[in-house]
Amino acid sequence: MLEVKDLHVTVEGSEILKGLNLTLKAGEVHAIMGPNGAGKSTLSAVIAGKEGYEVTSGSITFKGRDVLEMDVEERAQAGLLLGFQYPVEIPGVKNIYLLKAALNAQRKARGEDEIPAPEFMKLVKEQLAAMKMDPSFLQRAVNEGFSGGEKKRNEILQMLVLQPKLVMLDEIDSGLDIDAMRVVAQGINSLRDPERGILIVTHYQRLLEHVEPDVVHVLVDGRIAKTGDKQLAYDLEARGYDWVLEESAA
């Protein structure tokens, strides 16, 4: 589904990713862990098409398509969706309008008619309940005045409505209390599907207690230094990153 080959990325003249390789198959959940500054968030941002990142060499393909040749809108229409570590506030734009506009843009790209209003409201209310969010959130401006946990739930709500093919979550667990963590994890688990890939960037093993990854990667200095199963996340929790750094330097 997703293949990243020898990816080199610079930000403001500094090389952040230094030949990163990653293959994610449909149906898999991959977690990317690593120390601060290793390039974890850079990877998801580049795949999504966020501005400010320069790809100097390498390739990214999604279901056989060259991602780097696609506009941000095309990536979203193709089914790529990034959940932000720091979701932005959009004053003046109600949550319900954003959700409906985004969903209809996807449907239009697939050659489908706009979703009928009753069907849309039924869908959104079901997903609101799943995320334990009050219906009043629909009438509020996107993320404006939301707590950190509410913003993260809102990110997952968007994914539940839009049903992307590739879900990317950039430290979705940061700032969540235990209850919010469980709700967010339930939302992520409900997105698991044989036709969908999920890429989770996280610092902490605690999210992975609720969302069990198929593959865990450790990113060190712009490259994946170690790959394993869920046990690797437990090892990192217990031993930190020093042993991986030592292995990668050897």
Task: Give structural notes.
- By secondary structure, the protein is an alpha/beta fold.
- The protein has a single domain (2-249), classed as Rossmann fold, CATH 3.40.50.
- Helix content is 39%, strand content 28%.
- It contains nine helices and twelve strands.
- It has a six-stranded mixed β-sheet with strand order 6-9-10-3-11-12, sandwiched between helices. The protein has a four-stranded antiparallel β-sheet with strand order 2-1-4-5, with helices on one face. The chain has a two-stranded antiparallel sheet with strand order 7-8.
- A hairpin with a 2-residue loop joins β4 and β5 (65-66).
- α5 runs parallel beside α6 (178-190).
- The longest helix is centred in the middle third of the chain and has 15 residues, at 95-109.
- The protein is globular, with a radius of gyration of 18 Å.
- The protein starts with a strand and ends with a helix.
- Residues 2-246 form the ABC transporter domain.
